[in-house]
Amino acid sequence: MKKKPARTPKAAIPTRPSWWPHLWKLALLWAFVLAAYSNSFDAGFVYDNESAILEDARVHQANLHNAHRILTEGYWVSQPTTDLYRPVTTLSYLLNYAILGNGTNPAGYHWVNLVLHAANVSLVYALGISIFGVPALGLALAAIWGLHPLLTEGVTNIVGRADLLAALGVLMGLLCHIRATAGAGWRKAGWLIALALSQTIALFSKENGVVLPALMLTYDLIWSEHFSWRPVWRRILSYAVLALPLIAFFVLRSQLHMHLEVPFHKNPLVGAAFWPARMTALKVIGRFLWLFIWPARLSADYSYNSVPLFQWPRVFQWPLARWEDLQAPIVLALCVAGIALALRLRRENKPLCFFVVFFFIALAPTSNLFILIGSAMSERFMYLPAIGLTGCVVALICALSRRYSQQVLRKYLWAAAGLVCLALGARTYARNFDWHDEATLWTAVTEVNPDDALAHVNLGNALLEIPGRMPDALSEYQRALRIYPNYADAHNNLGAILLESGHTTEAVAEYRAAVRLDPDYPDAHSNLGSALSRIPGRLPEATAELETAVRLDPENARRRAALGSVLLQIPGRLPEAIVQLETAVRIDPDDAGSHYQLGIALSHMPGRLPEAIQEIEAAARIRPDPQLEELLNRLRKAQ
């Protein structure tokens, strides 16, 4: 029998790489996220952005000195009582301001925030695939979470970058841990190195990055059959690599000798007893859950008295009990029932169990249940925990689609999820308009939380910048003081209006009230000193107040310049004035007023006229003014 000739093998047909099916889905997600946040680039430096970026000289020039200061100083350089250490976040501002050259243009900062959010959306998509095992469910998880308007404060608010970076590190770390679990050899070592790097990024961006080990352990316990706990050292190694960033963080942070002082008006829980404070924290969790379900009334601030403190007696005085006080026990019951149900369904619905526990772990550092932090409630606190809530929604969708196998019902279910995503994206787009400027932001806050004293003060500050709105600003400060009479900021800002209106004596009284309520308030001391300097014979008192302000805030150029200007008016204190003004120029070389004042001071010192001319020339370069040119001509002739 004649044998058939061997068949020549055909050339292999090139196939698309394994990541290709995910790429178009990610591109679709990014497109929707970009559309939802397309109007965020017009938002300015609102809320804390000005003090964190525009007033922080450390991020204005890229050099080793500023990098060293960022690594060895707290997050808020002018507020050492905040007890925060976030060098990676501050370095990202340096990247924007000095390296990318964005300076005082907010658009570049918003682009970086949006890129970080898009990266987090991609990581959530990957996490969804790892947890559910189905790309469609990962897509739903990433879409609902990425478009949810509850996240706008973390994305549109520039200083929300701390939450973006912390979430980036936590999500990367969790995914690296999952991959390292299935890896071996050098591949496993690579994932472990990436895990340590992820923990570093998370923890040095924001303190809630500490939740990564707990999330890893949650995954290991729920999916314990995916790996063997023996040999034990292989499992310990995954957690041991986190020791280095954790130890480094706490050692560096302890060297700063920072201490936390939380003002009552920002977090009223600090003024409550232990259990009422924790019950109020439960009310906050209830509000977070409701805002996730129905994000219609969002606010950038929840200070005193947005969330009234819980009171025990009224709970038991039925029917006199108020809904405000009943919320806490109801939320407590819901949380306990939710955790119990998730644990009961651990084997039947592992994703649901994982995401329920994910929510509570991610929320724990900012919940005020364990430690009291600088704010009672803030929507940016939900940036990472919202992944847990979204995962619960997707897990329920998955369970329903499996239970009802009819194709039509499943299509309706997924169509409803798509409509929800469109609605969330539209609400996010509308929410971004609130962040356009200070006036729009705080107007929106006072509409949602009319009893928020801080919001009324900040709205007053914004109205002061608008010509003809001083009476409205005065009304806002007075409203804040009616809500909280011991509000030092309100007294201080009311004093500013009175001083500008020519009521110096009344302004001094308001400033003194602010100093009495908060003796460590540098602005109040500085403003009191400036007001006293206008009253004949009060220069010594003015100098003492300004010196106190400089002692409380030594790296503030404006306070140094104000002290130097007052010292110029006191005979025999010219050398001290020059020292203060030289320090002000060193701290902020771009301040024309400090250069001008220093030039005037130097012009009165024998032999220092050339230096005086240089300082006046620097002031003229920064802020051109015909009067400065005339002064320069006179000084040059005198030289």
Structure, explained:
The protein is an all-alpha fold. Among the domains are: 21-254, no CATH class; 268-296 and 314-381, no CATH class; 554-639, Serine Threonine Protein Phosphatase 5, Tetratricopeptide repeat (Alpha Horseshoe). The protein is 66% helix and 0% strand. It is built from 30 helices and no strands. The longest helix is centred in the first third of the chain and has 27 residues, at 106-132. Mean pLDDT is 89; it is low at 1-16.
A few lines on this structure:
Helix content is 66%, strand content 0%.
Largest sheet: none
Report low-confidence residues grouped into runs of 5 or more: 1-16
> Between the first and last Cα atoms, what is the distance in angstroms?
118 Å
Task: Please give the count of helices.
Answer: 30
SSE arrangement, N to C = HHHHHHHHHHHHHHHHHHHHHHHHHHHHHH
Radius of gyration: 29 Å
Structural class: mainly alpha
Percentage of β-strand residues: under 5%
Round the mean pLDDT to the nearest integer and report it. Answer: 89
Features:
single chain, 639 residues, mainly alpha, Serine Threonine Protein Phosphatase 5, Tetratricopeptide repeat, globular
Secondary-structure blueprint:
Layout: H1 20-36, H2 49-54, H3 64-72, H4 87-99, H5 106-132, H6 135-147, H7 152-155, H8 161-182, H9 185-203, H10 212-222, H11 232-240, H12 243-254, H13 274-293, H14 312-315, H15 323-344, H16 350-363, H17 385-403, H18 407-432, H19 438-448, H20 453-464, H21 470-483, H22 488-500, H23 504-517, H24 522-532, H25 539-552, H26 557-568, H27 574-587, H28 592-603, H29 609-622, H30 626-638
Helix pairs in contact: 1-5, 1-6, 1-18, 5-6, 5-8, 6-17, 6-18, 8-9, 8-10, 9-12, 10-16, 13-15, 15-16, 16-17, 17-18, 19-20, 20-21, 21-22, 22-23, 22-24, 23-24, 24-25, 25-26, 26-27, 26-28, 27-28, 28-29, 29-30
